[in-house]
Amino acid sequence: MSCLKHMAMVSSRLVFLVSICILISQAFAQQRYFLYHECSDNGNYSSNSTYKANLNQLLSSLSSNTEINYGFYNFSYGKSPDQVYSLGLCRGDVNLDICRSCLKNATNLLTLFCPNQKEAIGWFDYCMLRYSFRDIFGIMEDSPAFFMRNVDNVSANYDQFRQDLTTLLDSQIGQAAAGGSLRKFAAGNTTAPNSQTLYSLAQCTPDLSVQVCSDCLNGAMEFLPNCCDGRKGGRVVRPSCNLRYEVYLFYNATADNASSPSLSPPPPPVPSVSPPVPSVSPPASNNTPAAKGKESNKSRTVIIVVPIISFVVLIIISLCTYLRVRKQREKPQSESVDEIRSVESLQLGFGTIKVATNDFSDANKLGQGGFGVVYKGKLSDGQVIAVKRLSNNSGQGDLEFKNEVSLVAKLQHRNLVRLLGFCLEGIERLLIYEFVPNGSLDNFIFDPIKCVQLDWARRYKIIGGIARGLLYLHEDSRFRIIHRDLKASNILLDSEMNPKISDFGMARLFELDQSEGNTSRIVGTYGYMPPEYAMHGQFSVKSDVFSFGVLVLEIISGRKNSSFQNGEDIENLLSYAWKNWKQGIVSNLVDPTLKAGSTTEIMRCIHIGLLCVQENIAHRPTMASVVLMLNSYSITLPIPSEPAFFMSSGTESNIFLQWEHDSRVAESN
Known about the structure:
The chain has 669 residues and is an alpha+beta fold. The chain contains 18 helices and 24 strands. Helix 2 runs antiparallel to helix 3 and helix 14 runs antiparallel to helix 16. The longest helix is centred in the middle third of the chain and has 33 residues. The C terminus is likely disordered.
């Protein structure tokens, strides 16, 4: 009997451990950030506008709705011209709790990543959310779009694999398009070469007609050879439809042929605002210890239980290993469909650029930095461009340079300067950018006349835009970029004074002699560099956070971070800001032209800036945290610790003496 009790205890623990592995699997599936999202430039709203109030009401209604049980939400709220439309779509195989939880996360994130855009869209694995100022119901849209692909290639019999895939997807597209007005979804499988099972799904937003849904999915299918040819898995995702295939089961198996009319859910009730849906809780597990056996049976019990425990451990290790391998096997490579361009299409002839810049005349010179000289140019089609003529200190070969440029060109964000192409002839290496008309930020904030053009509202908008651009580079872009030279002269302002980070690919384009965390050549500008980078070559995303903090303090104060006379002492901006903070007179730091600005916002931004420039790397926030702090006043800010000082009172730091003897690429501010 004692043995049976121990077995029962082990069995209950097995159930518990399996439940843990299931939760781990679900955690892998959950996304902290969107697979892909886009903020449209088709219009902005202000923080106190009617449009924002309508949007908040609409998204709150969507995320809290408990009456819709078929995974498709199409709401509108308000009156023209401030009416807002939204669509929410859950993948057809997910259960209701996961669907609602996913949409709730989406409503929180999308307005965070797109804080003042009237139109935005974001995708998780399990759901899609979009909203707009225009009517989007019943309209098929194929952009913005993106694809993801499995990193593994089909090893053999690819022609047969492709034929089987085409047959399967054709069937799924037909089934999904034929679905009712509540769900257009189909999933299924077929046998592929080498005894593999091939799984796929197809889905449209149910507001589309049969023909329009079919057209959308066929268009997505036609793109598969461009993105995923020869791969064991791939997906193409559009606002109105999506399809996916893999050689492993990636959806709920009970969803096969789920688009059958007989499985359609009941007609939708009238939408209404309901209390928020609670978070999904882990499944309860029976882990109550069994009663201990008698001492006389102890040795026999061990003989039986030890193999069982070993078996359980083996199962758990196998399950968790499988989950890890499966995630590694999928490793998505997300790219916007509209941005896929070959290296050749990005390359321009040197003669073309020479003509466009009037032979790189001084009259067309826009500026000069550590990486080269920038010229204004105009192509034969009338497009105005900015051309950076790189210094001859890149250690890359031609092929490496081309590949790096093609990667950087695919980075797209409204707060990054867009790289349009390049030129590579002989020793000449040119980068062609979009032209940003208002020049760099330093020309405004440090100019006693121009600075008045930047009131607090504009400066706050610039701070937020830079933060979002850095967050994209650090966490949301196709590959992580650490800028390493963030400064006022590398922030350009467009015609509406929106900030655009420039030179964000320079560190990657120039530095191949670096490990993951350090480099033998320093790229950057004195005063913006954190001490761990300047002295030891150690860099991370927190290096950019430090530079961002310096930049925030410059924007608020209108002072450069270089040394200045303060009475009898020589100080820099960080030491000056810290002393005023400690003495409770931080208003001394504020540019006098900002006296009409929001004192609360200004003080909060100074606080955030000081958090970013702390000497201890671990204490500095991530850019994700910075964006949250800038957009949510409900978040209590921690007390900053002492910043990293580059200059002590009255004397220069030894760090400058070290720089004089280093062969490091840096420029003086």
